[in-house]
Amino acid sequence: MTIRLVLAGCGNMGYAMLSGWLKSAKLEPQAVFVVEPNAELRQRAEHLGCRTAAEASAIPANAVPDLVVIAVKPQVIREVTAQYKRFGDGRTSFLSIAAGTPVATFEEILGELAPVIRCMPNTPAAIGKGMMVVFSNPLVSDDVRRFVAELLSASGVVTAIDDEGLMDAVTAVSGSGPAYVFHFIEALTVAAEKAGLPAETAKLLALQTVFGAASLAAEADEEPGVLRQQVTSPNGTTAAALGVLMGGDRLTKLVTEAVEAARLRSIELGK
Ligand SMILES: NC(=O)C1=CN([C@@H]2O[C@H](COP(=O)(O)OP(=O)(O)OC[C@H]3O[C@@H](n4cnc5c(N)ncnc54)[C@H](O)[C@@H]3O)[C@@H](O)[C@H]2O)C=CC1
Ligand SMILES: O=C(O)[C@@H]1CCC=N1
Predict the structure, then answer these.
(1) CA distance 117 to 93
(2) Prediction pTM value
(3) Strand partners of residue 180
(4) CATH top-level class of 177-269
(5) Edge-to-edge order in the sheet of strand 156-160
(6) Whose CA is nearest to atom 44 of ligand 1?
(7) Which sites bind NADP(+) (predicted)?
(8) From ligand 1's centre to the CA of 50, what distance in Å?
(9) Residue 192 and which of 67, 153, 208, 258 are 20 to 30 A apart at CA?
(10) Could you tell which of 15, 55, 72, 76 is best to mutate to test the pocket of ligand 1, judged by most ligand atoms within 8 Å of the CB?
(11) Of 38, 80, 35, whose CA–CA distance to 55 is shortest?
(12) What are the residue ranges of CATH 1.10.3730.10 in the chain?
């Protein structure tokens, strides 16, 4: 079968996206060629039915994929992208999910004909609940834009931006964001245990509360601030807790500081 998509890097994010694409049947597994040096990770892709290899040189010489997805760490992005230069004649489009690395880096390595899309996904993509933000260079055709949007929609919600400069902020909010929420679950679990709940119960309550609250915020017509007020009885327990979190805008300031640290690191990774 023709190779439609090459995935370079089948680590946490590459695998999360690939499994979503295959599960939704947007892509036949035999049409995907996965390049991953780690044998164990390669096996995961084989179990999904994909063809795999440890090196890009093993991709059949006559292959002209529609899309090459670059899903390696920013630190090795230049060296890895250079291995796909032979697909830079304009017939193949490139999709990078690397934090920080600008489209110009790919244009510089692949040449002036390469259509390049930059995408910032997040790990909930593994269960079809990701947030994917895309930015494309002008060479990306409407057909490829549609194909990529359809593919990515199997991983969750897709939105496009036309100012690449915002990608560092996107990375800091939705790319890294799941980690902030996971940490909040951890913190609520610790607090629950300190309040006397058994470990299992503490974990269940923390997790289900975050899940339920996020689901309600997504489904309800009211803004999160209104939903918060609906929980908060005057002089009640929630007001006591929010006094700690919101006093002096404590949590907002802390989260803003965290997002800014991530944004600056994204800028640094792009250099
Ligand atoms: N983990 C996350 O939540 C998110 C990650 N990203 C981006 O995704 C990219 C990958 O991140 P992770 O999946 O977390 O890292 P990871 O380390 O889990 O995956 C990277 C994979 O690339 C493989 N690799 C190394 N050299 C290679 C080569 N020459 N050819 C093919 N594969 C090679 C590694 O063996 C590894 O499995 C990064 O650029 C990161 O910025 C973007 C959004 C979210
Ligand atoms: O931590 C990182 O650099 C990557 C990018 C966004 C999420 N993980």
Answers:
(1) 8
(2) 0.93
(3) none
(4) mainly alpha
(5) 51-53, 32-35, 5-8, 67-70, 93-96, 116-120, 130-136, 156-160
(6) 122
(7) 71-74
(8) 18
(9) 258
(10) 72
(11) 35
(12) 177-269
